[in-house]
Amino acid sequence: MALALGEKVPDFTANTSMGPISFSSYKGKWVLLFSHPADFTPVCTTEFMAFTQRYEDFRKLGVELLGVSIDSIYSHIAWIRDIKEKYGVEIPFPIIADVNKEVASIFNIINPADGLTVRGVFVIDPNQKVRWIAYYPAEVGRSMDELIRVLKAFQFNWDKKLATPANWKEGDGGVMGAPNTVEASYQREKEGAERWYLKKVS
């Protein structure tokens, strides 16, 4: 069974480009786990350089980056070295070598068409629950700006307990959840809401 939104990620251990990890060691932190189809591929290479270029922005949000594919640890090492040698970019986060597809099975990120890991993204909160899942086609690279916006929105919700409206960006207000009784709906109108089901909060 694939992990659903709100479900806790089971603990796992894995070998990475920076040595073995246990997922339980990330408890208390935000995690952006992202899978890629294969090392030494064009879109994936640009993405890993983009993740590195924005690494400090993720760190400022307290977000740990964790890559994964079913390539071997030696493939990861060779690819990381090649990116550094050819582009001067040193990948600062671990990449899981999921040769046995154990992590891929947990997150259901194997493409049945080719057996490779899909281009997936999982935002995992400090309680190690999945908060956001997105899949990209192999030919479309991910937007770092959008990933950072989504993480900021989740952290805004985490702190303020407010949802974020369409096109929300840092500095914008939020919206309250809709009332769930008739009485509460009338009370919401008395509080000056635009509509009983839509109340913006600055």
Give your account of this protein's structure.
This protein is of the alpha/beta class. The chain has a domain at 13-142: Glutaredoxin (3-Layer(aba) Sandwich), CATH 3.40.30.10. 32% of the residues lie in helices and 18% in strands. It has helices at residues 42-53, 55-60, 73-87, 102-107, 144-160, 182-190; strands at residues 13-14, 21-22, 30-35, 63-69, 95-97, 119-124, 130-136, 174-175, 200-201. The strands form 3 sheets. A 5-stranded mixed sheet has the order 5-4-3-6-7. Strand 1 (13-14) and strand 2 (21-22) form a beta hairpin. The longest helix has 17 residues, at 144-160. The N and C termini lie far apart (40 Å).
**Sheet of most strands:** 5 strands, mixed
User: What level of helicity do the residues show?
Assistant: 25-40%
CATH T-level topology of the domain at 13-142: Glutaredoxin
Tell me how many strands there are: 9
Oligomer: single chain
CATH architecture of the domain at 13-142: 3-Layer(aba) Sandwich
Shape: elongated
Q: What fraction of the residues are assigned to beta strands by DSSP?
A: 15-25%
CATH 4th-level superfamily of the domain at 13-142:
Glutaredoxin
Helices, by number, come to 6
Q: Give the topology string: H per helix, E per strand.
A: EEEHHEHEHEEHEHE
- The SS-based structural class is alpha/beta
Task: Write down the overall mean pLDDT.
Answer: 96
What is Rg?
Answer: 19 Å
